Amino acid sequence: MKAKNHVSLLVLSLLLSSAMLTACGGGKAPAEGQAATGDSKKPFAGVTLRIVGANHPWTEGIKTKIPEFEKETGIKVNLEQYFEDQLTQKITVEFTSGSSSIDAFMIRPLQEAKMFVQNGWISELTKTNDTNWDYNDFTKASTSSLIQNNKLYGIPTVTEREILYYRKDILEKNNISVPKTLDELKQAAEKLNNPKNDFYGFVSRGQRSPAVTQFSSFLYGMGGDFMADGKATIDTPEAIKAFKYYGDMLKNYGPQGVLNMSWPQASGIFSQGKVAFYSDADSIYPNLIDPKKSTVADKVGFALFPSGDKGQSPYNVTSWGLAINAKSKQQEAAWEFIKWATNKQNVTALQATGIPGPRQSVWNTEEGKKNFPAELVDVISKSNEIGKGYDRPLLINVGPARDIIGDVIVTAISGGDVDKAAKEANRAFQELINKEKK
Predict the structure, then answer these.
(1) How confident is the model at residue 85, as a pLDDT?
(2) 327 sits in which H/E element
(3) Phi (first) and psi of residue 84, to 5 degrees
(4) If you ran DSSP here, which 8-state letter would residue 365 be given?
(5) E-assigned strands of 168-299?
(6) 4 vs 2: CA distance, rounded Å
(7) Each residue of 197-252: pLDDT tens digit?
(8) β-strands 48-54, 147-148 pairing
(9) Pairing mode, if any, of strands 316-324 and 104-107?
(10) Cβ pair 205, 255 in contact under 8 A
(11) pLDDT tens track for 282-302
(12) Is 315 within 8 Å of 388 (Cβ atoms)?
């Protein structure tokens, strides 16, 4: 009897196991981090994702749409938001400890991506051949800063380019055409500069570190770059010419106190109606055309960044992207979230609120253009075609690198020995590059 009972129990156990496997989907176990479900249309139903992001208009915009994603996929999203520096600190601490609790996160490609990839904290993204999602629609410049060693580590969400802002009324009054070259910009700034009447020809960032990003487009236009093949190149003839041009423009035609100006101060003096030309990121434009913030709101023009001796290469960068934690146990579900957040419909919806996105097709739609001045849309579209995907050195220690390069900019604005400063800075910059090679 005992033997019969044992066999009966064994058979009953096998039957129960078979029934349970069938309930889980024909005997196939659910993927790691994926809940078992009989709904083939929602393969990730029951999964909860932890998404960590920045306090940014893009995050606020996508947050309102997350309920749609949850209903569509069955995935629960827990979104956390932090100030930029807090975000970096939090992610760094958790990733250093090997935590797998963060699934996807916002990243600044030109600030942290290189270090995060080197440390093995980001998953490579390989499934980009979804035709409905259309990876090829992202501009080349927007994805370039998220590619390392020919591998993709993130998807862009927010972009910006350096452009030239100008006073339409002032140029019309003085019969001056919108400058298309840096030489023409210098001539126009010189003609319009009138410091006795508290009016200036040109303004941009003059603070040591913040100035580097805006200087980059001048550097590229002169045929220079920060580095090439692991070698510092900020003392080349092209680079020195760019330093001198930028320094002379701010020294000779800029307002007092320009060495203390980052974008809030520079845009502020332009908004007060005291400057003819202003070069900076296109993302700043809302401050310049808002009547509550600008006395020249209806007089602001937008132009493509002017050509230098060697052509026209304004920076066209991704300020924010989305990436997946390499230790996440729910990477497939995290990828579903990223694809959803960056699909054409959502990029269009967020861009309609004034957030410049990375998809070129969206810039060709009425919805994607409606909250941007028509002249600016044209400038952005052309910049997308010719822009360079970085506005600072592509190093892990990008902060110290910007300080080194910024010293030369300060020297140029102050009227010092630019050649000497550039050579000294190049040596220091090369030492920094060499340290990262070890």
Answers:
(1) 87
(2) none
(3) -50, -55
(4) S
(5) 200-203, 227-228, 231-232, 275-281
(6) 5
(7) 999 999 999 999 999 999 999 999 999 999 999 999 999 999 999 999 999 999 99
(8) unpaired
(9) antiparallel
(10) no
(11) 999 999 999 999 999 999 999
(12) yes
